[in-house]
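Thread: quick sanity check before group meeting

JM: Hey all, I'm pulling together slides for Thursday and realized we never actually wrote out the predicted structure for the chain we discussed last week. Dropping the sequence here so it's in one place. If anyone has concerns about the input, flag it before I start.
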Amino acid sequence: MSSGKDPLFLGVDVGSYGLRAGLFSRSGEMLAGAAREISVLNPRRDYYEQSSAEIWNATLDACDEVLKTGDRGRVAGISFDATCSLVLLDAGGMPLSVSPSGDPERNVIMWMDHRATEEAALITSTRGEPVRYLGGTVSPEHELPKLLWLKRNMKATYTEIGEAFDLADFLAFMATGSRTRSNCTLVCKWGYLAHEGEGGWDREFFAAAGLEDFYAQHLSGYSIGQVGEAMGTVSPDFAAGLGLDPACVVAVPLIDAHSGGVGSAGVALDPAREDEWHERLTRTLVIIMGTSNCHMALSSAPVFIDGVWGPYFGAMVPGLWLNEGGQNATGSLLDHVLRERRLYGELTREGGESIFTLLNREVARLRETDFAFNKHLNVLPYFYGNRSPRADPDLWGTIDGLRLEDDISSYARLYLSTVQALAFGSRHILEEMEKKGYRIDCVVATGGHTRNELLLQEHANILERPVCLGEETENMLLGGAVNAAAAAGRYASVASAMSNMTRMGREIVPQPESCDLYRRKYEVFKRMYDFQQEIRSILG
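JM (edit): ok, ran it. Output follows.
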C-alpha cells in the first residue's frame, strides 16, 4: 500500500475510441482511474480521422478526475502512450486538416486509416534499409505512407506542416513544450534505425520514397529520447491546470501496445534475480488484446521475420530488440460479426447482459454434449487485411460452413469460430517467430478483451501453452507508471521498475481434449488462405 509520503505516478493511455488515466503507487498498485470516450470520424471507406484538440481536452479531464483522489503534489512522473496516429499542426501550432472535408479540427489520421495503401507499396518497393527493419513490408498504418499520401493528394496541407507527431509524442509535447521525439515511435513508425546511432536516418531511403524534403525540414532536426528517460518537466500551464509539482517529470512516451508490453512482461521477473531478467524477457510473448492485437517479443540480437514488424532496437525495453506481430482487426472483428446478426439487438435488450457473457454461456452449454459442435464452421479473420505474417492489407475475410439458421446456437457457433480464428492468427505469428529462433515459454495477455474468458481459454488451447495474466489488469496504464517511475529516477532502469511494479496474477491452462481438433482446424485455417490466393489468381 502507498503511504502519504511515497511518490505517485500517472499513466495516460489513448486508444482508438477512448482514453484512460490511472494513478499508481511506487509498488505498482493502481489507486484511481478514469476514462473518457473520443470521437472517430469515418467520412469514407478506409478513412479514419480524429481531433487532437478533443483528445487533449479529454486527457486533461480524465487526469483531473484521477488526481482528485490523491495528493497532486506527490506525482513524481507522468507517461503517455497512444495509438500510432499521425497528428499535424501548422507553423503556428494550430490543427492542420488531414481530411478531404477541409475541417481543421480533423487533424489526425488514425493508425487504422488505410488511405495510403498505394503509398505503402511504393515505399516498400524502394527496398531501403528501413524497410528491412519493418518486416520487409511497409504498412499503410505507418506514418511515412500517410505523409506521402498527403504530399500526393493534399499538397496544400503537406506544405503547411509545422509539426508532425505520432500521437504519443504530441501528448508529451502538450505536457512539456518539448519537441523531443520518442525512440519508440520513430523506430516503429518513421523508419528510424536506432541501432545506427547518429546515422539512424537513412537520407537515401527518404529520397527514394519521395520524402527527402520532409526528412530535411523535420526528421533531421529531431532530438530523440529513450524509453525510461525524462522528456522534461511539466510545463507551467500543464502544472498549474492539474495542480502538479513543477518538478514532476514527463517520460519519453510509448506506443500503446509497447506500454502494454512494459506493463506485462515484468510478471516473469523476480526482483531478487536480476541475473535472470534478460533471459526471462526474451522468452516471454505479450499479446495485447484490443481493437487490434499486438504480439510483442524481445531478443538480445536482431531477428528478421517476414511479415512481422521489426526488429526494433530499444523500442520497448532499452538494450533489447523488439519484434511486433499484429492482427488488424480482432476486438473490432468480433463486434462486427456479432452486430451483423439479427439476434444481437434482441439478446442484448432482453437481459441487460453483454453479448459476450450470453454467448460464452451458450458455448459452454453446447459443449456439454459436443465439444466440437462448431467443427465444420471455420473463419479466416482477414476482414481488414492481414498485418502479420501475411503483410497484405488487401486480403479479405472468409466464413465457410454457414447454414440457413438464425437461432442462438448458430449464433454461438459463428462466435466461437471467430474467436478461434483470432487465436489461430496468434498461433501463426508465434509459429513464424519460433521458426526464426524465438523460444517462448511464457505468454502474457493484456488489454480490454482479456475480460473475455472464452477468448483467453481458446488462445491457451490453440497456442498449446498456458496464458498468464498480470495481477493488475490495466497493463497499458501500469506500463506508463513503470516508464514514469524509471524516468523520475525512482528505479535504476526500466527492467528494474518492471520487476518491482508488475506481478503475476492467474494462469489459464490448455484443455487437453482440444488439442487434436484444433491442430486440424489450424490446418484448415491455413488452407483457407491458400484457397483465397487461388481465387485471386482465377479472377485476377
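AS: nice. The mean pLDDT is 95. Residues 408-435 form the longest helix (28 residues).
JM: adding both to the slides.
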